[in-house]
Design goal:
By secondary structure, this protein is mainly alpha-helical. The chain has a domain of 47 residues. The chain is 43% helix and 0% strand. The two termini are 17 Å apart. The C terminus is likely disordered.
Length: 94
């Protein structure tokens, strides 16, 4: 069983909709009040973690992306935890 926190769920849903990491970052940046560059780095890190766990195919893959099935809803736990960041930076978890 895989569960995601709010941000992970948003990213997962947008990936399922076929959005690119750049498009997802454009959505997350104003929603969470963070710079676009930070949002993009976080999205890319999350996608890399999903790929490394074989939960999604690499985005650069030439093979068609598999269907994610129905979109996850109501998922509330953290899948990968926070990136190591200095205390007080206020980064949201993915």
């Amino acid at each position: 069983m895989i569960t995601l926190n709010l941000t992970g769920s948003i990213i997962w849903q947008q990936l399922a909709d076929g959005r690119s990491p750049e498009q997802i970052a454009d959505t997350l940046s104003p929603q969470f009040g963070i710079p676009r560059e930070q949002a993009l780095a976080d999205v890319k890190e999350f996608v890399e973690q999903l790929e490394s766990q074989h939960l999604i195919a690499p985005l650069e893959s030439e093979t068609p992306r598999p269907s994610f099935g129905s979109k996850p809803a109501g998922l509330f736990c953290n899948l990968f935890g926070r990136r190591n960041a200095p205390v007080g930076q206020g980064r949201g978890s993915k």
